[in-house]
Amino acid sequence: MKFNTGLVLSGGGSRGFAHLGVIEALNEYGIFPDVISGTSAGSLAGALYADGYSPREIFGIMNTKSSLDYFRPTMTRGGLMKISGVIKILQNNLRAKSFEELKIPLFVTATDINNGKAVYFSSGPLIDALVASSSIPVLFRPTIINNIQYVDGGVLDNLPIKPIEDLCSFKIGSFVNPAGTEERNTSVMHIAMRTFVLSMSKEADEKSERFDILVAPKELCNYGILDPEKAEEMFTIGYNATVKKLGEAGISRSSHP
User: Fold this and answer.
1) d(CA 245, CA 147)
2) Which residues are known to be catalytic?
3) Which of 4, 235, 243, 246 has the fewest CB atoms within 10 Å, measured from its CB?
């Protein structure tokens, strides 16, 4: 094994604020990941953490209160909105411009829609890979890297343990995309988002046995994936769920794997 502790962070849009609570709790218990794998929102949180920011510092960077600070409506072909706000946040705050400059090794998952496969970026330019990983289909235009079109990594791998599974001895997952139930809604945007959430929600059950600890708070289904207004609540949910899981695993603040 190359690393001791690996951390896997799922996609989930605004629910990704819960990841920061998860990492905060892990750090308080003396658990610091040696390698990180993330999809979409998980890749953004993972990249900023791997760049040396604390969970609370990342919260301050990403907590803009309005989804319009991340995305703006557009009439261009290939997507309903522009992801320019996310790009600006990354450009203004990421000190590392490439994977190689990060303090912690990072794998970023994106979906290659030309060849129909998940791709795990771990070298080269960082922001392009992060934007590709976060480009929710229909909502955003695909990101083009080396003439290949990429969309959100969650389409094919929303809990990307694969790239680090054989690299570390202790594996922790944070899954923030439970489906829950919803009332009938006829908006095209809402139906597209609901379909995307449902396609990703099964991963926690399918992969749970491959983790030593998997944090997957069910109550996050009450929060929208494009609704950052309740970021603090989601952070707290992730934190509390992690403390509970660590307790169930017999891990105290003075002992860790």
Assistant:
1) 43
2) 40, 152
3) 4
Tokens encoding 133: 């990983």
Q: Tell me how far apart the 2 most distant CA atoms of the chain are, in Å.
A: 54
- Residue 133 CA to chain centroid, in angstroms? 9
| Centroid of chain to Cα 211 | 17
Phi and psi for 126 in degrees, rounded to 5? -85, -50
Residue 126: half-sphere exposure toward Cβ, Cα within 13 Å: 22
The answer to whether the beta carbons of residues 95 and 70 sit under 8 Å apart is no
Name the strand (E) or helix (H) holding 240.
helix 231-248
Per the listing, tokens 């290939």 go with 78
What's the token pair of residue 216? 């997957």
Mean pLDDT value of segment 210-232: 88
Distance CA 96, CA 119 (A): 21
List, in order, residues 6 or more apart from 73 with CB less than 8 Å away. Answer: 80, 81, 82
Residues in the chain: 257
Distance CA 130, CA 252 (A): 34
Task: Give the pLDDT confidence of 4-37 residue by residue, as tens digits.
Answer: 999 999 998 889 999 999 999 999 999 999 999 9
d(CA 12, CA 183): 20
H-helix segments, 81-227: 84-93, 126-133, 188-201, 203-207
45-102 pLDDT per residue, tens:
999 999 999 999 999 988 865 444 444 444 455 444 445 678 888 999 999 999 999 9
Read off the pTM: 0.88
